[in-house]
Amino acid sequence: MSARTVPPSGLKPTWSSIFETGLGARAYPYLMVLPAVVIVLGVVVYPVLSGIMTAFYDVTLRSLNSGDMDFVGLRNFERVFADPNFVRALQNTVVWVILNVVAQLGLGLALALLLHRAMPGIGFFRSGILVPWVVPSVVAVLTWRWMYDPSVGIVNELLVKLGVIDAYHPWLGDTATSLYAVTVESIWKGTPFVMLLLLAALQLVPKSILEAASMDGASRWKKLWYVILPQIRVSFAIAAVLTFILTVNNFNAIWLMTEGGPLNSSEILFTLAYKYGFKRFDLGLASAVATMLFVGLVVATTVYLKLIQAREED
Amino acid sequence: MNVRSILKGGAAAAVLALGLGSSPAFADNIVMWVNAALANGPDAPLYEELKAFQAATGHTVEVQAVPPIEMEQKLFVALSGGAGPDVMTLDIAWVAGLADAGLLADITEKAGPIASQYQPGPYSSGLFEQKQYALPLYTNNVALLVNDRMLADAGIQKAPATWQEFHDAAVAMTNKEKQTYGVSFGGNRMGAFQLYSFIWQNGGDIIDAEGKSHVADPASVEAVDFLAKLYTESKAMPDSVLTAGNWDEVHAPFVQERAGMVVTGDWALAAVAKANPDLKFSVHPLPAGKQAATVIGGFDLAIKANTSVPEASFELVKWLSGERSIALMRKYNRLSALKKAATPEAIAALPPNMQPFMQQAAAGRARPVVAAWTQMHTDVFANAWDSVIRGKPAKEAMAEADAAIKNLLEK
Fold first, then answer.
1. A54 phi and psi angles, rounded to 5 deg
2. Are B329 and B122 in contact (CB under 8 A)?
3. Do the interacting molecules here have an ipTM over 0.90?
4. Which of residues 44-63 of A touch B (CB under 8 A)?
5. What is the pTM of this model?
6. Which domains does chain B have, with CATH numbers?
7. What is the pLDDT of residues A217-226, one digit of tens each?
8. What CATH number did the domain enclosing A152 receive?
């Protein structure tokens, strides 16, 4: 006996009736998500796999043009590790990520707590604090570049007037300060996003818990540590992971301010991969760095989320 | 075959015949990428020139403007993928890399008969491993821009013409209290580009015709040392030398009248005049060392290796780089690379501020046309310059640069 529904007498069967019962009904949801799956496979999975594959081949413009690409095993990784700039970039990336993540989370939380109050004009301050996040990153970076100008920059002017420094300093031109100067811009740009996430989480903390804690005589610090932070830990974890990923991938800030210089003093892995790929056109080498970055990001993110999950289960 | 299909076929044939009949035989469509400065609006002189080309040949040209800062990368990526333009304008420094990757058409045979019409320096910029891959669209070089007021205030009567005069003028215009400096210079690759002329002027070299590196030769080291000490010892350069990564930043102290001189090319004239219309400045040939020399820049025209319209593309390249380029480039305040553009009469016809550039054209030297030049320039020389202005001895920095260049040449 056929599984197909019998159309009411007088009505012609339609295409849609195929998906109402039996195999058609089971296949229906898969068919619906198929276009999305195909697109994701095409624009996410394939490029990632292709990038990883490229790391094991000698891919330069010449080989790309001739189509004659040799499999070189781990040779690209060996070359990357032999490059002193890679070691420098790796160290810088660690410093860059730690400073950014810690500062953005700390400042973001402080601002969220500050703005999570009922006071006149709080809407204005909440909107105002988002300005750095709203400004296009290229505009922000170029503005900061001029602010750091060693001759006419406002940063030097302010610091001299405040008595912090005696004379103007080339913040972006000094190998000792270039990475930290860019980090300040990155923190300024990224903190409002963290603040927004944490402020939204704070709005969801039940007032009754806070009132109960107050009645029990908990200090502000204890309320923050034992009541508020546990309540917003999921949002905090998400903010931490997102900040980590966005910082590692924050190419614009470094590239537009210093291009990784001077003398590689602000080079991070992302800018190094870009230089390998689009300045030297050694795509095998660039893919090796990108693959290491990808694996590092996946491992770090997974470990962090597992730790949060484990704590939640405890 | 029914009547309707016969009529359809007849109509299609008629349309095809009409289409062919309305344009000259073998009319092709040429896709052309140009640096955006040449196609900055619908009234850009290039479009008028292309109309004349189209009227004369029947070929059509589809222009796509690309910002110069992105152009090298876009060309490499597009051409490697088999896409990209049929004809392209490209910085003379990119020719070797693209030719080495097999992305440019070899035009040696076609260019041979017309080679003698170009100035030798710009023409050689299209030559890689004994084959011609490009013809010069326009040429430029670097000269010395001098703030006339600052020079006079420093008690100097004429613009420096020798290294000693250049040094003395730079020191004389430097005033720590007023925060004025003698000369504005670039950092990293900008500074590297500016110092090549001085290496050649001192009798040094970068890479010779046999492909041998000379950057650690005493003459090359001495030139780098001379420039670096203007900053490290004489403090005659502003701190922007540590960070200036584009021409705007190199020009800024000169435009703001904080630096009395700047080593730059003809592209600076309009930018400086626009940024500070009140600035009184003059242009002079670079102060000569043991000999006169200036680094040649400019853009070439090249054809994609596997273009489907090679003949039409070469016609376009020949047209734009030919005799009409003198008038065309004048409209852009740029210099044609034809020999005819460098005759005394042609130089006299140029605006006064453009004349010094063409007067020193004979002393122009092209940068080495080697495949890894971009990397040598941006990684090796840029880092060497950054090192010496931060105190590293020039001999040491140039020895390291020499080793790096030899390594790249071996590859």
1. -60, -30
2. no
3. no
4. 60-62
5. 0.83
6. 27-140+297-365 (3.40.190.10), 141-295+368-410 (3.40.190.10)
7. 888 889 999 9
8. 1.10.3720.10
